[in-house]
Design a protein that fits this description.
Structural class: alpha/beta
Order of helices and strands: HEHEHEHHEHEEHEHEHEHEHH
Number of strands: 10
Length: 317
């Protein structure tokens, strides 16, 4: 009988403690969730940062040179981020050339794209139809020289202010705002008579060439150079190779100069989280076709030959 009474009392105490035990377990679970939430938040804070990948479109020796040099410049910028959390960081793609840019833009990701070694015409053609949120995560260092630097070079080569003409096609008309110092701008539409368009450019002493595939293609370049040469108009080309085949002069950027600008842009983005607008090369040097200059009765000075904007020397530590 005494044993039965003790069992009944124990059962009664157990029933009275049940709500308290349940509450204790619930509070313990809530505490565990809170701890886990705080831990997740800390992990989220820890993974803030970026990782990078260089995308290429070919396996040429020049591309290898670009990638090797650029990689060395970019590694210090990303070295501060924890290696074990790399896969959780936001990706920053560096696209080398048009093919690589197409590849980067085709990837579905919360990523940033910096394009290099692609002309402004091609870059705009590939990005113009992207949704606005996607476009805000893309920028570029264009392949061709800055028009303002080119027009300054023309003044130095001629030794005075010079009247500059420019041909624009439908795909390069967007460059008109940066050509405000040009004397004469002529629009050219595929199918137009190119010689007629060039002959109508009567005020220009020199022609500023821009990379527009509708105008300066393999079929037209020789014709343009011969036509302007006969009229004693020099051509400020958009590449060193163009000068070598008959253009008067150009500014141009070597691999190391473009890569230095890409690395600067990348470091600024990692530090601020903001991408600048696409930009022309910041650092450059000059090449002049001395034979063409002589034929145009131009006496080229060392000031013109040495026109350049070199990469700044690293700051002393």
């Amino acid at each position: 009988m005494a044993t039965l009474l003790r069992r009944m009392q124990n059962a009664s105490r157990a029933r009275s403690l049940a709500p308290l035990i349940a509450m204790t377990l619930a509070l313990a679970a809530t505490g565990a969730h809170a701890v886990q939430a705080r831990q997740t938040e800390r992990e989220r804070e820890d993974v803030q940062g970026y990782r990078f990948q260089i995308i290429t479109g070919d396996d040429s020796a020049v591309t290898h040179r670009i990638v090797d040099d650029l990689y060395k410049r970019l590694v210090p910028t990303f070295a501060a981020f924890r290696t074990e959390l790399a896969q959780k960081r936001r990706m920053l793609y560096i696209a080398i050339g048009p093919t690589a840019l197409r590849d980067a833009l085709s990837r579905r990701c919360d990523c940033v794209v910096i394009s290099a070694y692609t002309s402004s015409q091609v870059w705009r053609g590939l990005t113009a139809r992207l949704p606005k949120p996607r476009r805000t995560a893309i920028t570029a260092v264009y392949a061709e020289p800055a028009p303002n630097d080119q027009m300054r070079l023309a003044e130095l080569v001629y030794g005075r202010p010079v009247r500059v003409g420019v041909l624009l096609g439908p795909d390069t008309a967007f460059l008109r705002p940066v050509l405000h110092d040009a004397t004469e701008i002529q629009m050219f539409t595929p199918g137009d008579d190119l010689n007629h368009t060039l002959n109508s450019m009567t005020r220009a002493e020199t022609l500023l060439a821009l990379p527009d595939s509708d105008i300066y293609n393999a079929e037209n370049v020789r014709n343009i150079l011969l036509s302007t040469y006969r009229r004693k108009q020099g051509v400020i080309g958009f590449s060193a190779d163009m000068v070598k085949v008959g253009a008067l002069a150009t500014t141009y950027s070597e691999v190391e100069e473009i890569n230095a600008q890409v690395a600067e842009l990348t470091a600024d983005f990692v530090r601020t989280g903001e991408l600048p607008a696409p930009q022309f090369p910041r650092y450059f040097r000059t090449i002049i076709n001395e034979g063409v200059a002589s034929s145009l009765d131009l006496r080229v000075t060392d000031t013109a030959r040495n026109f350049a904007r070199p990469v700044p020397a690293p700051a002393a530590r």
